[in-house]
Design goal:
Chain lengths: 111, 118
C-alpha cells in the first residue's frame, strides 16, 4: 500500500480538463510544499512535470498545473491531448524516516 | 544535456547481491546543488525510492530497505552505484537512477530491468 493515495484511473476527452488527486497526511503533503508530479509513458522513464506543488520545469507545457489544499495535492491537465495518456505519480517529502514517498499512480485515458 | 545510464546484470540469483552503476554524462556528479538517487518499479506497479547520495558520500536510505542497501559514489568516474543484498523475487523491478534537485527527481536514466531468479 502506497503512502500517498491516488485514484487508480481517470479519463477525459480531447480538449477537456481533468484533475488527479494525491492525498497524504500532515507529515508529508500537508506539512510541506514539496509535492512533485511525474508522467510515465509505457516502457519509459518517469518525467518530472511539477515540482514544489505548483512549479513547472522548463519545457513542460503550461497545460499542466499543480495545487494543494490541506493534505491533498492535485494535478490538473487542461486541453487534454492524446499524448497526455500515461501514468501519473505524485511524490512528497515526508518527515517520517522514509523521507520520500510516492503515490500508487493514476492511469489517464484520453477517450 | 545531462544524461544518466544504468548498467549491470539483468539476472541475479536469489540470496545474492544486486549491483548496478549509474554513469552521469553532460554534467558533474560533484555539483553541490544535487543529490543522486535510485528508484525502482516492480513490473506493473508503482515507484519506490531506494536511497540517495551526495557527492561527498552522505547517504539517505529508505528504512524498509536500509539493512540491505549500500549506495556509493565515485567522483573520478562520474558514477554512483547501488548494491542490494540478499535479494528475493520481490526485488525484481526496473531500477532507475536519477538526479535529485532538492526534493524532485528532474533527470532520470532509461531504467534497467533486474530479474531475481535461479
Amino acid at each position: 500500500q502506497s503512502a500517498l493515495t491516488q485514484p487508480a484511473s481517470v479519463s477525459g476527452s480531447p480538449g477537456q480538463s481533468i484533475t488527479i488527486s494525491c492525498t497524504g497526511t500532515s507529515s508529508d503533503v500537508g506539512g510541506y510544499n514539496y509535492v512533485s508530479w511525474y508522467q510515465q509513458h509505457p516502457g519509459k522513464a518517469p518525467k518530472l512535470m511539477i515540482y514544489d506543488v505548483s512549479n513547472r520545469p522548463s519545457g513542460v507545457s503550461n497545460r499542466f498545473s499543480g495545487s494543494k489544499s490541506g493534505n491533498t495535492a492535485s494535478l490538473t491537465i487542461s486541453g487534454l491531448q492524446a499524448e497526455d495518456e500515461a501514468d501519473y505519480y505524485c511524490s512528497s517529502y515526508t518527515s517520517s524516516s522514509t523521507l520520500k514517498v510516492f503515490g500508487g499512480g493514476t492511469k489517464l485515458t484520453v477517450l | 544535456q545531462l544524461q544518466l545510464q544504468e548498467s549491470g546484470p539483468g539476472l541475479v540469483k536469489p540470496s545474492e547481491t544486486l549491483s548496478l552503476t549509474c554513469t552521469v554524462s553532460g554534467g558533474s556528479i560533484s555539483s553541490s546543488s544535487y543529490y543522486w538517487g535510485w528508484i525502482r518499479q516492480p513490473p506493473g506497479k508503482g515507484l519506490e525510492w531506494i536511497g540517495s547520495i551526495y557527492y561527498s558520500g552522505s547517504t539517505y536510505y529508505n528504512p524498509s530497505l536500509k539493512s540491505r542497501v549500500t549506495i556509493s559514489v565515485d567522483t573520478s568516474k562520474n558514477q554512483f552505484s547501488l548494491k542490494l543484498s540478499s535479494v528475493t523475487a520481490a526485488d525484481t523491478a526496473v531500477y532507475y537512477c536519477a538526479r535529485l534537485l532538492f526534493t524532485s527527481f528532474d533527470y532520470w536514466g532509461q531504467g534497467t530491468l533486474v530479474t531475481v531468479s535461479s
